[in-house]
Design brief:
homodimer, alpha/beta, Arc Repressor Mutant, subunit A, D-Maltodextrin-Binding Protein, domain 2, 3 domains, 12 helices, 12 strands, DNA-binding
Chain lengths: ~300, ~300
DNA sequence: ACTCACTATCCTAAAAATGGATAGCTTTTA
DNA sequence: TAAAAGCTATCCATTTTTAGGATAGTGAGT
């Protein structure tokens, strides 16, 4: 058991010893260490006891080193430098860092936020690499298990996974996305209109999609979900020329509508739901990591300057 | 100034940290460290503060390591091993040690004691090398200046060179050495006979040779020193066929007399002086050095077993 | 709901470190 | 030769730190 020897000696004394050996002078050592002379003298006493060796030997002209002290001096310098290196906060240099950053999130959300981040980061940290990991039903366990550094999600952790941190990226209103030849495409949509038309719904996890149902219920209404999709990719294909309505966060809807025969309409006034929030999640284990701190900053810069 | 960072953290905590990181369990760590659980818990608290990082993160199944902790764990093992190596008493292995041992002493004394030592030591430590250094007028400053590891001397340090240690090797009576055709060679020598014959004296340092003078003075006598030599080598040559008497330690006299036309006679009864003592001297700086401790033991073995 | 396992905190007692003053020693200076 | 100066080690009272026992609080498993 290693501790046997290590715990016999006060390691803090090594710092004092190093200075003492190089100064060969208690008072000067005390000055360099910002300690009082008696304190250093007694530290020397403890060192002598610990090493069972006088270490510094009085001579007419001052102190000489014992043979043990000579040995120690030659080793201590490197040793203390090592200790310093280990305990010193790890320096992060974007220019040379080559960490592989793993991120996850729903395809659409990743497509919405990550490209700009990667572009910016790669400009500042050319050796940093990225990996977008396909997300499981629930991305929080992935953070928990250290499979990814970041997760992008609009959800909240269900259980008390308290080791997670998050930062809100953007609030986004929910809008209706429908075919441009939909019956409701050009008229003003009432709450009843909305409730009575068939709906499409993207639900990857099977949860978290119930907010509209709650809003409708508050008005004594309910809707019919005719199509349930596990991803955003084919939403447009299902929507064109159909009677479906998808209710989606605004920017996602815009993306999907782009170049397609689709229209975006606001939700009927009375049904205004709380805006959807997207969060960047990370695990406590990286909360103080300078690389990750820097990345989070970059993320925020990207989000709020574009 | 290095101390800046090193003195900010209690280095002893690193030992606790290492165990904590490998156990990921406060109570078990406490057990391994022979500390109470609260003590380790508080140590962890201090570590968290020092590193500004949670280090160990609670999860459902136990603790996980923070990224900093992972880094630390990979470094700590080697670091603590290094510390241990440095603070651990230097192991000395005669079989492999190749230290160059420097010794000094008067030629005669060296010839008397060192050959047997060297022989014995070389049998046990074949790689150890020796150098007999020509001694200055005074050998003590040579010890002081770390020019030799050992000095063989019958003298005592004159000033308060308190950093020296010594070990008495042998007490030796002083005898008279004279030509076998000397007038006093075969008669019983009285104190007056002794005082009235011309004397030879070996005095390398110019001091320490006054003991006979004191003994004579105590009896109201004084002697005439006709020849003063700076070494023992040519004593025999001066003595043969001369009227001189040398007063020398017994074994030295025997050496010198060997194969020469010389005789050894005891000192006249009333003049019995205190026996001469020879000492092995070494400097405080090597007092605790395992190599030198071993050598001193070997020396004593040689002296007292032959 | 209850038990079990574990960590963090509260409290008090014990231990350690600190700084000022100073004794004791040696060298240097007058 | 005596006085002064420089330095370390020790004494003392005080402050700071650390320790262990008891226990509250938390979450997991039954």
């Amino acid at each position: 058991m290693r501790s046997a020897k290590l715990r016999d000696i006060d390691l803090n004394l090594l710092v004092v010893l190093e200075v003492l050996l190089s100064e060969r002078h208690v008072s000067r050592a005390a000055e360099r260490l910002n300690m009082s002379q008696p304190a250093v003298s007694r530290a020397l006493g403890r060192l002598r006891e610990s090493f069972n060796d006088p270490l510094l030997i009085r001579t007419a002209t001052g102190f000489t080193l014992s043979s043990r002290a000579v040995l120690l001096q030659s080793e201590l310098d490197g040793l203390l430098r090592d200790i310093e290196r280990v305990i010193e906060p790890p320096q992060f240099d974007p220019a040379t860092d080559d960490t592989l950053i793993r991120i996850t999130g729903l395809d659409m959300e990743v497509g919405l936020y990550f490209p700009a981040l990667v572009k910016r980061v790669r400009a500042l940290a050319p050796n940093m690499r990225f990996e977008v990991v396909r997300q499981e039903l629930d991305s929080f366990p992935m953070l928990e298990r250290d499979e990814v550094h970041f997760s992008l999600s609009g959800l909240a952790p269900m259980s008390a996974e308290h080791s997670l941190h998050r930062r809100a990226l953007e609030e986004m209103n929910v809008v209706c996305l429908l075919a441009d030849n939909h019956a409701l495409a050009h008229a003003k949509m009432s709450a009843e209109d909305y409730a009575n038309t068939p709906h499409g719904l993207v639900s990857i996890t099977g949860r978290g999609a119930g907010s509209m149902e709650q809003v409708l219920a508050a008005h004594g209404l309910k809707r019919d979900v005719a199509l349930r999709l596990a991803g955003f990719t084919s939403v447009a294909d299902f929507l064109e020329d159909s009677d479906l309505v998808f209710t989606l966060p605004k920017r996602l809807a815009e993306r999907i509508a782009e170049g397609r025969r689709l229209l975006i309409r606001p939700l009927p006034e009375p049904l205004q739901a709380a805006p959807v929030k997207f969060y960047l999640y990370w695990h406590e284990r990286y909360h103080h990591d300078p690389r990750m701190i820097w990345l989070r900053e970059q993320f925020m810069e990207v989000i709020f300057t574009t």
